[in-house]
Design brief:
Rossmann fold, six-stranded parallel beta sheet, three-stranded parallel beta sheet, binds NADPH dihydro-nicotinamide-adenine-dinucleotide phosphate, methenyltetrahydrofolate cyclohydrolase activity, one-carbon metabolism, multifunctional enzyme, EC 3.5.4.9
Length: about 290
Amino acid sequence: MAARVIDGKAFAATVRGKVAEQVAALKAKGVTPGLAVVLVGEDPASQVYVRSKGKQTVEAGMHSVEKRLPATASEEEVLAVVAALNADPAIHGILVQLPLPKQVGEAKVLAAIDPAKDVDGFHISNVGLLGTGQKAMVPCTPLGCLMLLRDLHGSLSGMEAVVIGRSNIVGKPMAQLLLGDSCTVTIAHSRTMDLPAVVRRADIVVAAVGRPEMVKGDWLKPGATVIDVGINRTPTESGKDRLVGDCDYASCAEVAGAITPVPGGVGPMTIACLLANTLTACCRANGLPEPE
Ligand code: NDP
């Protein structure tokens, strides 16, 4: 039986709609959530993401600020922008678009963001809070994956989850979130032996690898839920790039119980969660009850 297609685009629209409603309620109390995005340099993919984030922030009714610095900006200049945003009471969320030019230390810049405004959840304080099961700012992409999984399954308790990839921005926080929901979690990576056999025991597979169509249908336990985080551009004969995930969609959809498509699966959830995190940060900053 063909897998159920998890419509991340529609789910993300619902999340954004709920955020917009809550923003409107806050504004009626005189509080407007504000999100600042810092972009250093002219990386084309980053420019697209930043534009999209700005547009959706405004659509949700929030205050949106974009700070652009040239690719030649020094680390001190970037740190000065972050410090000004930390001190700005109209800004509740700060996101520094990665990657940064090589003269700007990523770890140093991320560490300089006020953890309460760290809506990407990359600050070491938030990483530690998440790792110890405390209230944290949770990285947007894994949070989006968790929301899709909870929506599909309700409780994830006792399920076998395999996360492929151990990056700080996706794989590791994803594993922490699944553990927090009482899954039995395995983290696989490039040194994992016999990856297909590891994946085959999973009820939930999260692929965050960056290798086009790597996970094949015959690696899956029948009925498994597949969350494909990968976004890979592959050339086609027409010369136009095609977006594919880390999972071979055609073969996986034949075996899985449910699967996210690429595009239209996890991707749209990332910005929706960024907006949700900004709303949460704003509520916490103002001592207001947090959104559900
Ligand atoms: P990284 O390159 O930082 O990490 C990739 C991980 O995959 C590493 O842990 C690596 O292992 C592992 N890996 C690489 N090759 C293999 C292999 N052959 N078998 C098993 N594991 C392997 O990537 P990210 O986590 O940043 O991103 C992963 C994917 O998700 C990318 O396609 C990216 O574009 C996409 N992405 C999508 C987002 C969205 O909004 N939907 C947001 C962020 C990322 P090791 O550690 O051993 O090297």
